[in-house]
Amino acid sequence: MNKKKMIRLTALVGVATATGVVAVANQAHAATTTTTETTNQTTNASVESTQAAVDAAQSAFDTAQTSVDNAQANVTSASNNVTSASATLSSAIAYKEVATSENIASATSAVSSQAIVVASASQAVSEQAGVVSAAASVQASAQAEATSASASLSSASANVASATSALSAAEAALTSDQSTAANNLSAAESAASSASAAVSSDRAAVDNAQAAVASAQAIVDAVAEVQSSDVINMSAAYITALKNYLANPSSANAAALQEVAKGADYVKELQQKFKSDASLDVVDPSDPAVQEALSVYAVNLINHLRNQYGLTTAFGASAKANVAALDFVKKYYDYENWNIFGTTGSDGQGHNKNGLDAYAVQLNTSIAEDAGSGLTTWVNGKATMATTTLHNLLYAVYSDIATMLFDDGGTNNWSHAQSIFEDGTILGTDGFNNVYLGLAFDKYGYAHYELYNATEGNQLGNNAYSLDVQTAAQTLLTNAQATLASAKASLQRMTTNLMVAKAAVVAAQDQLAALENSSASDSAAVTAARTQLESAKTSYQTALATYQQKEAALEKANDELANVQASLEAAQVTLATAKAKLAELEETVANLTNADQLLAAAQAAYEQAVANLTVATGNLEAAQVDLAKAEAQLALAEEAVEQAEARAEIATQVDQQLNGSNANDRQSAGQDATSLKTNGRSLTATVATASAANPKRGADQGRLPQTGADNQEASAMALVGLGMLGMATGLYGYKKKKLTK
Question: CA-CA distances (angstroms) from residue 415 to 305, 309, 426, 533?
Answer without folding.
Answer: 16, 16, 9, 93
